[in-house]
Each structure stands twice: as structure tokens, then as C-alpha cells.
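Posting this for the archive.
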Amino acid sequence: MTPSYRIVFMGTPMFAVPALKGLCRSGHRVLQVVTQPDRPKGRGKTVVFSPVKEAALDLGYPIIQPHSVRTQDFCDAMIRLNPDLLVVAAYGHVLPGRILEIPKLGAVNIHASLLPKYRGAAPIQWAVINREKETGVTLMLMDKGLDTGDMLSSASVPILSDETSGSLHDRLALLGADLLIQTLNYYEVHRKNATPQIHEQASYAPLLKKEDGHLDWRQAADELEARIRGLTPWPGAFCFYNGMRIKIYRACQKPVVTQEPPGMVLKGFSNELTVATGKDALVIH
């Protein structure tokens, strides 16, 4: 018989939504959904709900949006709920140890990489930027470190040659939801056999900032092409021309030998915008 757990779910962006919907379909009891506070967005500073809040409202789950998970009030609220499990997917804040100790069967995190590679906030983007051939999703037992807990299960996918971080995000979100339900079906077995990470093999995927989108034409064309894909849709790749900011969404490498400096538009390529780089050239589509 498939077990049914009493779960507190914590998540904020779209990546977490398939996992929450999967828990609903699978018959687990979601006691509470915890998501970050509503934020103003766009030029009009309109206050918007997080994707997880939108999904939780549709599913009829109770929602709380604490400004901090380190307060005594939040800790007391979790203690009163007395969950079997805490399931976390891209919540956006590191949880303190006293919160992780509340659920009887531990806290499970859905992380969008094959740990211990790409610990941190932007594993999907950096896997594309670094031209990895594959990535995946790992379910781990949370501890006080940053994505350092023992691994319960994992699943991998190839990174396609034209993959953007946006398309990869969508595939990994669905993969993570499926892996979560599969793992919960045999959770006690996975928990008993959880595998410690080899910390010496760890790499990190730091949070991206808008300025990380500024292209450096001194890089090789294949590196720039991967960076453009990794930065799409956010923060977006861009350059400047005569003081005007130009966003670049898609490009390809072109083998070219030129004496022109990196960043110079090359002549002689009919119907193509071809730019010199540190090695070869980049055709901007």
C-alpha cells in the first residue's frame, strides 16, 4: 500500500509548481504551503502572487507567507502542524536547523542538478553556460549546509544542443515532480539508503545578476553562444552599440579567421549579422 504523508510544502517560483500539483494528485496530505511574500513587479510595481501561491489557491491549500523563517512565530507554527515531512522546492531562503528538525521523517529538497555538482541558486543556468552534456534533479535530505545533504534519489536528462535555461527549467521541473512522488512511494527505503555527497567533487552555481548578461566579445564564439542560451530568459544576454542596449536571444558559432578585434561587426556575410569574437565569430539571429 502506498504511504500517505502529512507534508508542509515550501516553494516559490514556477519550478516548484509541478511538485505541489504532484503531491495533490498522489494523495499526500499537504497541511500548509509556505511561500515568499507577494512582491511588486514591473514598471507599474503591481503586487503579484508567486506561482506557488497561485497554484496553492487553485488547489485549496492553506498558505502562509512569512517575511522570515527564523522567527519564533514561524517555528511555533511549524511545531503545531507536526508534519511527517517538509518538502522544499526553490523556496528561496536557507532554512535554520531548528526548522529542519521539526518534521518526524526529515526535510526533503528538490534540487535541479546532479549533486554534488552545481550546488547553489542557479544550477540550471550554469549547466547550460558551462556546456554540460547532461544534468538532472536530485532529491536530498536537508541539513544546515547549502545543498550538502545526503542524496535520496536522482534522475538525469541530456542537455540539448539548442537548449536554453528556460526550456531546461521546464523539463527539470516536471522531472523533479515525478522523482518526488516516486521517491515518496518508497521513502523509508530511500531514507535508509541515502548516499552522502562527495564534497570534494562539489561545484557551485551562484545567483545570477542582471550585469552577468553583458557579453564579453573576447570569449570564444562557442562560449558566447552557450552563455546566451544559459541566460535566456533571465537575466538575458546583451551588448551595447552606440550607447544603445541590444538584447540577444539566439546565435550560433561560425568558423572564421579574422584580424578584426572582438566585438567588431564583420563585412562580407550576406544577410547575416556576424561579430568577431576571441575565437571564430558569432552569428546573431
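The chain has a mean pLDDT of 96. Residues 210-284 form a domain with the Methionyl-tRNA Fmet Formyltransferase; Chain A, domain 2 fold (CATH 3.10.25.10).
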